[in-house]
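Q: Could you write out the predicted structure for this multi-component system? I'm mainly interested in how the pieces pack against one another.
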Amino acid sequence: MPEVEYSTEMALSPEVIWEFVKDMNNWAPMLTGYQEHEVIDDTDSIWTLKGDVGILSRQVKLKAHVTEWSGPERVTFTLTGLNEKVDGGGTLTMRSEAASETDEVAEPVKPRRPWFGRRFLNWMFRTMFRRIHGEGPKRLAAPTSAEVRSVLTYTLRMDAGGPTGPLVNAMLGPAMLPAAEALANKIAAHLEQTHLAPS
Amino acid sequence: MFHLGCQMAWFKKQKRKLDLETDVVIIGSGGAGLMAAIAAHEAGARVTVVEKTDLIGGTTAVSGGVLWVPNNHHLAETSIEDSRQEALEYTRRLADNRSDEQLIAVFLDTAPKMLRFLEEQTDLEFSALERYPDYHPEFPGGKPGGRSLDPGLFDTNELGEWKAKLRRSPVFGATAMSVSEATDWGVFSNPLGLDFKLLGERYKKGLVCYGAALVGNLLKAVLARGIEPMVGAAARELLEDEGRVVGVRAERDDEELLLGASKGVVLASGGFEWNKQLIAQFLGGQLTHPNSPPGNTGDGLKMAMQVGADLGNMSEAWWCPSVMIPGEEYDGVQLNRGDFATRSLPHSVIVNRAGQRFVNEAQNYNDLMKPFFAFDPMRYERPNLPAWLIFDQNYMDKYALQTVVPGMPIPEWLPRADSLAELAEAMGIDAEGLRKTVERFNQLAEIGKDEDFQRGDSTYDHFYGDPKNQPNPNLGPICKAPFFALQVYPGAIGTKGGARTDEHARVLRSDGQVIDGLYAAGNVMAGVTGPGYPGAGSTIGTAMTFGFIAGRDAAGKSA
């Protein structure tokens, strides 16, 4: 089963990130290939994504079911394919950087610190994001202390079933890490633009 | 030096500076273009390849990658015998007096040499597909197999940083199995027999098959000769000097490039199947759903016309029925999948809006399409458009339907109904007509003989049928609900009309004179097979043969 994990740092508290993440409507459009989503209730929604599977692009409908709303630390969800035989799930984890360095036992996944090149690319991405989207609206919350840093970690696993599963999984694997990176970085860029840009 | 002098004179006259000076400029990076590049280089020329899209391989890369070469040396590895005379008789019949017979002979004489050259100069090692029949194997000179050649697999890691530039098929690109393996494993009739674990491992390793394997090998050979194709460079105009083509004006991003070609320019830029204006202007059929990459917009044809090229075979295409899965995209446009097997397997028929069959559904994809374009002069309409594939749960229980194999959920994009009458109403098909057609078809399936359209009579039909289904591998009743309908659209692998050439692949004017310095090969050239499709790989076999001839001749050597 292909599984990926991606972490990114933000100069924001986990609470600020949680305020954004707890409402799926905020970040669903940031998913790679997002077409639309329909919120059914507090825990269930249907996402329609257009994703690159192998060489071509295909539309996939997934039912997302949140199994754990555990603010401000974590949201965990499962994914079930509605038009493809695929299942999976994921977790968005928010932790202060201090906690991530000292409280390793309490958390199931220790975020990896991205290598320098990746951090540079992230910086570039966020800079470009701000250039494209402007300096953003006025702050929505009080500025966070410069010392406060959090790590947002996104884990995603998908498992294609049926007889073709081994082949589809081979194709899904390479596409998942870029998707995880894109979501985490877009959330980070959006929040930094909203909360840290000079007013 | 004379040619270079002409070239320099042009640029001096135009007060333009040459961006690149070479001997042979090749426009397009499919099988014809890369073959021309290798041939010209081996004949001592400096070569530049320009490719409009960001990927290498053109139509060839998304194809089955098979070459049709009659009388080839790999036939010796089979039990099939062949001769030039048989191949000539067969190909002439399919060309239907609409092709230059001299060029047919040139193709048949040169293709085996091209094949040997190819295997000597690249890592390609073909194998004869002994069970892949010619498309009319029962015609005089037709063969039950062996003329079509399989390029095998290719490891894309051998391309280094060019790996990502290799075009892949949206349909075959992820399933790395050779044509021989696909045949042995029963890719269509026994989809659950495929080793998907092995295919997954091959995908992870970077192995590719079919057209990508062929182009991968060609690209590797081109790169090994120090030729780095210019990708994203669209040729826009042929540069002439006193009637001779001396270069190309190309555009890359916002940059204009003037490429001087002291020995010649080879047009190998594919067909015009994605150019609606040219389709309306020339094609005999209503092509709406091409199967090739959308970059094939007739650029080479237009450039040839601008310098006065004569044209031939303009009403023809390598026709192929298309089906669509909504939402699937390739190169940013809706993907049109060629349908090769659904219509050939038991438990399926093709009907028009009257609910009537009108063709042997299992025949080769090129000839299958022709009745789709039948014209009713009294009503001024085409009675066989639109058309639908009708099949039942028996089919879904046994066979593959594009991306779906037995055991997978029926996709929501596939229209279905619990009865044929309901299905007919939903699709706008005459219900009574469909009822009668299916009743009749089921009777024919029962006896195993299609008395109406001879489906299953030819060895070719059996190749895409189910060998376990007897007495006829192509016939089975449509009787188990739910029933399904899939619209079949007029598609084509590519058009095959274009610039007329002589035996040296030199482009001709309408008075029969050669346009000095201009060559054509592949789908931009007037196809030598006329309206016919002799066998699997006829497209690439002819394209690479005339690419070979063009490259050699431009460099100053005969093929």
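A: Regarding packing and overall arrangement: The mean pLDDT of chain B is 96.
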